[in-house]
Amino acid sequence: MRYFDGLLPELKQIQYIIDTHQEFIHLEKIATVNINQSELPIYAISLGNQSSEAPVITFVGGVHGLERIGTQVVISFLETLLGRIKWDKGLKHLLSQVRVNFIPLLNPVGMALHKRSNFNSVDLMRNSPTESHEKTAFLVGGHRISPIIPWYRGPEDSDMETESKALVNFIKTNCFQSPFSLVLDCHSGFGLRDRLWFPYAKSKLEPIPHIGEIYHLRDLLFQTYPHQNYVFEPQSKHYLCHGDLWDHLYDLSLEHTGTFLPLTLEMGSWRWVKKNPLQVLKSLGLFHPMKPHRVKRVLRSHLILMDFLMSATASYQNWLEDGKTLNMAQRATRKWYDN
Ligand SMILES: [Zn+2]
Fold this sequence. Notes:
The chain has 339 residues and is α/β, with parallel strands linked by helices. It has twelve helices and eight strands. The chain has an eight-stranded mixed beta sheet with strand order 1-2-4-3-5-8-6-7, with helices on both faces. The structure holds zinc ion. One of its GO terms (molecular function) is metallocarboxypeptidase activity. One of its GO terms (cellular component) is extracellular space. One of its GO terms (biological process) is proteolysis.
């Protein structure tokens, strides 16, 4: 591990947070992954109500090793909560009603090696058994041609990768028993705007059964923060892919009575590039704001969203039912699926 300290400041930071806040957190090592005879841990850190009846929100980062900013955004919200937990009565009360999970770095090997994929060159977000039956994006949509080409799904008929399995198992055991569960998985590298994506990634034609609830959640966000700047839409608006882990988990969740809504935050990195074109030349360039002031701005700017989602999870009983109405589903379908 020592050897990787310099390559993985994020993991060092996570370990420091764990060591210094043991009294407030529940810690689980959900897997270890090997690289050059070293073992790197994948941690899940949990705050708040640990009962399976409590609603739960899970923040995920570092699925793609090049997208360091996702991990940093998740760590920064964890730090904010841990900073407040000692003195903030309001937060303490909120955490008695909700569980807040963090998996800040799912793919530590990818991050150490400056790779999108894991050690086996598998793109974890193309690694689930979910198949799209529509026309997926060429290569980007996931393929089994060769691990040399990015977006590789892994060999045919193989088991999921360690990292993917760890995430799937954690969500299944920690979230599926809850009456309501949200996820925010933080990525970067797509477009100019910050986007919130929801499943499916496998289909343009088929809306998820919870489309009304998603639409209502979007409404709540936009009413609560009229000056926010997110585009909120199905991932399939942009490209279709095989093997998306959230498609897979969402479909599995339908066998349970609780509601499970996974969201992906895609931070629009092209504007960082626009302001600093030379950063394209660096390996992280397309996925990470290089200037320190820009990193700070990104870390700050998503805290409100994360705080909103945490509150929406804790108070799900006050809005979720309204999302189940036919009217809400119709508005959602009109907005996103009627061309
Ligand atoms: Zn990504």
